Amino acid sequence: MPPNLHLLLTTAFLLTSLHLPAPSPAAPLPHFREAPAFRNGRECPHPTTPAASIHIAMTLDATYLRGSIAAVLSVLHHSTCPENISFHFLTLSSPHHRPNHLLNTILTTFPYLSFNLYRFDHNLVKNKISLSVRRALDQPLNYARIYLADLLPSSVRRVIYFDSDLIVVDDVGKLWGINLNGKILGAPEYCHANFSSYFTSGFWSNPVLSGFFRDRRPCYFNTGVMVIDLDKWREGRYTEKLEVWMRIQKKYRIYELG
């Protein structure tokens, strides 16, 4: 029996951020001015206090580098306790995608930033990605977010995931502090979808797969902004369960958009 419906819908709507193939290695990366040093307000706990840390994960690639820089700047600018924020950047490990150049860009633009760079091996998803209606959605880095629990150290127990094309306009600490009420993650939910047009006839003709919609509201959530309980994710082995759905999609194409 395949995993539950929410995992199916997570996979189906995982493709919310558009990561295009990186430019040619010969193309220079854009240069950015050094950002100012953002300091904590008086009410903030000391940055070295582990419980005070706010962990944010984002992908990082050459195509969307300007968006990533703007997103980081917006987070710091609106944060009450910017020195307590730790960023976790996910980039492709291939030299073609210039992870060292991307690292240098972050270091020179945000010299005071607390961050780590994780190199995502595209081979983890190479044979699991199905073709999409838009080639921009077929890129391996789109799927790196479902491996956060494996990539980040076990000491990181909760993380906020942001797409690299957004701007934060309020204190991210408010989002960090939300009560998940025992759930694995929190994300923007949409409950007015017409799933009859999203999934293929093969899906609807399969009683096991289509049965997941029985007595359920047609809801999905946007994976571009998520607060994830990594402890619960690891305990439930949700990366493996999502990989099951990726293989089903690859073999049977149950979802129209890819």
Summary of the model, kept short:
Its EC number is 2.4.1.-. With 258 residues, the chain is an alpha/beta fold.
Describe this structure in words.
The strands form two sheets. The protein has a six-stranded mixed beta sheet with strand order 3-2-1-4-8-5. The protein contains ten helices and eight strands. The protein has helices spanning 5-12, 65-78, 99-109, 148-151, 172-176, 195-198, 201-204, 207-210, 230-236, 238-252, and strands at residues 54-59, 85-92, 114-120, 158-162, 185-186, 189-190, 220-221, 225-229. Helix content is 29%, strand content 14%. α1 crosses α10 (238-252). β2, α3 and β3 (114-120) form a beta-alpha-beta unit. The protein has two domains: 50-187 and 223-251, Alpha-Beta Complex (Spore Coat Polysaccharide Biosynthesis Protein SpsA, Chain A), CATH 3.90.550.10; 189-221, no CATH class. The protein is of the alpha/beta class.
Report the end-to-end length measured between terminal Cα atoms: 22 Å
Q: How many distinct beta strands? A: 8
Largest sheet: 6 strands, mixed
Strand content: 5-15%
| CATH hierarchy, class of the largest domain | Alpha Beta
Classify the helix fraction into a percent range: 25-40%
Instruction: Specify the number of helices.
Output: 10
Order of H and E elements: HEHEHEHEHEEHHHEEHH
Q: What is the radius of gyration?
A: 19 Å
Identify the overall geometry: globular
Give me the secondary-structure category: alpha/beta
The oligomerization state is single chain
CATH architecture of the largest domain: Alpha-Beta Complex
